[in-house]
Amino acid sequence: MRVLLRVLAPLLSLVVAAIGALVVVEVVAAWVGRVSGAGLLVPWRDWRTTVQNTLWTAEPVLWIAVGVIVVGAVLLLVGLLARRHDVALDAPSPGLTVATAPRVLARLVGTRVRAADPVTAASVTASARSVVVNARGRGDTDALREAARGAASGVLDALPLARRPRLTVRATPEQPGSKGVQ
Prior knowledge:
Helix content: 40-55%
Low-confidence stretches: none
Distance between the termini: 44 Å
């Protein structure tokens, strides 16, 4: 969603700037007295006449209203979904806000879990609310899970997290003959 927001913001800014430039040109032309007829670039007077003769209950007005509501709802949804999903850390002083990306938290946890003895591979997904570790390794599933949980908990305890995320650890023993098992 952030990519869509990064594309929409300049486009909407250009549209608003173009409309503003048109208004400035039309107002200056009207002040100077250069306007003959409907308008210099845009037929404002014809539009005004059309709008004055159109009722609020007319079908085109209703369709335009529905279109504006849909576009507004889509823009609102894009804006709300495009927020940053950072993981908040405890601030060292009252005036500071400290945060890290979920990707950084996942890398920290993943590095520590992969360094655990029975773990041969691990994938980690992190957010501000949860950290999910999928560990694969040698030996018993329970021992593998506890080793991965201990390593991940050690990282989460060591970091000054404002709110500790929920930790979920899944362990899968490696099958003989698979990559990583000799």
